[in-house]
Fold:
Amino acid sequence: MTDRLIRVGHSPDPDDAFMFYGLASGKVKLPGMAIEHRLEDIQSLNERARTGELEVTAISAHAFPYVADKYWIMRTGASMGEGYGPVIISRKWRTLDDLRGKTVATPGPLTTATLLFKIFTDGITNVDMPFDAIMDAVDSGAVDAGLLIHEGQITYQSLGYHKVLDFGELWENAADGLPLPLGLDVVRKDLGEEAARVLSRGLKESIAYGYDHQDEAIPYALQWGRGIDRALGEKFVKMYVSQLTIDMGPDGKKALELLFKVGHERGLIPKVGPLELF
Structure:
């Protein structure tokens, strides 16, 4: 009998690569399922999810309201900031007041970073571009500031940028200490509940394998580190592959519900019904 093909979309980033190492290496196997990995930037995965193309995929939390009819949220695999998150940086400017009437580069219309920008800033124009083009746009003067995701969040200081705002710090204060939901893994509803639970358990086992075999998993993950060394790469991985990634638990679910509530109240995203986690 042929194994069922499960296409899994995730970003070519150290944290996602670390999470999926157990599955990608074949050290974690799912009986009856053949896993095929599709690596694409998060904005592309968000767009693919709108058509339900992949059976399992990473998406931005911002994108979920647009795909809730097709996908369930997996309780495993979420990226959540715990007092840290996307950062607005600039060469010249230091505060949000400085940026009023100016332009900030943001990393894609369906990224959670862009949703946070629209929720928490006012009077600042944004222009979307690929996340890895943002620092160059700031340096060239094409934009006044940039909103950084991925490893830029931990390298910007060493590159001489000013931090205007860390949305993780802002959210922690605004949300009474709840984590900041940034990325999710979702599973397509037409696979059925049993398969959804098997896939969620498989991802949990893959993360556990990575932590138990860091000498294998960290170097593998750093293939997508875009110039960061092992120490910074390991720091970044452990920032976004945390206990909340293994299981988002009640706090992660509450944080998601709050993000969706605030986004909807601001007229930025569709209303989301009760969340069911797999």
Observations:
- The chain has a mean pLDDT of 95.
- The chain is about 40% helix and 20% strand.
- Residues 87-174 form a domain with the D-Maltodextrin-Binding Protein; domain 2 fold (CATH 3.40.190.10).
- The two ends are 27 Å apart (CA to CA).
